[in-house]
């Protein structure tokens, strides 16, 4: 019912920047919180940044001050601007959306994008 498509990943040198984008499409009433999760090789998936429909955001301590999350509610998109990238930021980044469906007003569901690879290396 809901599709999330990420783009913008790639290979960058330490200190470089990338901007990830995620677009949501399908049938839904509203998108509540949206976020970016990441998973490094051999590691669990962790929240990098999240933003509510009202624009309130929060970040993992490891990315605070370097990453900025933003969203466009009219376009159903969320972006993650990543600056001062470090090798430790290397991971597959997944877009996540908590969605209220048209047919289930009082329930919400989590949807995931396919992931986009970010590699920070010299």
Structure description:
- This protein is mostly beta strands.
- The chain has strands at residues 2-7, 10-12, 18-26, 30-39, 46-51, 57-59, 67-72, 77-82, 91-101, 104-112, 116-120.
- 0% of the residues lie in helices and 61% in strands.
- The strands form two sheets. Strands 2, 4, 5, 6, 9, 10 and 11 form a seven-stranded mixed β-sheet that branches. Strands 1-3-8-7 form a four-stranded antiparallel β-sheet, with no helix packed on it.
- Strand 9 (91-101) and strand 10 form a beta hairpin.
- It is elongated.
- 32% of the residues are buried.
Set out the fold topology:
Layout: E1 2-7, E2 10-12, E3 18-26, E4 30-39, E5 46-51, E6 57-59, E7 67-72, E8 77-82, E9 91-101, E10 104-112, E11 116-120
Parallel strand pairs: 2-11
Antiparallel strand pairs: 1-3, 3-8, 4-5, 4-9, 5-6, 7-8, 9-10, 9-11
Question: TL;DR of this structure?
Answer:
With 122 residues, this protein is an all-beta fold. It has strands at 2-7, 10-12, 18-26, 30-39, 46-51, 57-59, 67-72, 77-82, 91-101, 104-112, 116-120.
- Compute the average pLDDT: 96
- Overall strand count: 11
Classification by helices and strands: mainly beta
Low-confidence stretches: none
Gyration radius (Cα, Å) is 14 Å
Q: What's the overall geometry?
A: elongated
- Tell me about the largest β-sheet: 7 strands, mixed
What's the helical proportion of residues? under 10%
How many angstroms separate the termini? Answer: 40 Å
Strand content: over 45%
Give the ordered list of helices and strands: EEEEEEEEEEE
Count of discrete alpha- or pi-helical segments spanning 4 or more residues: 0
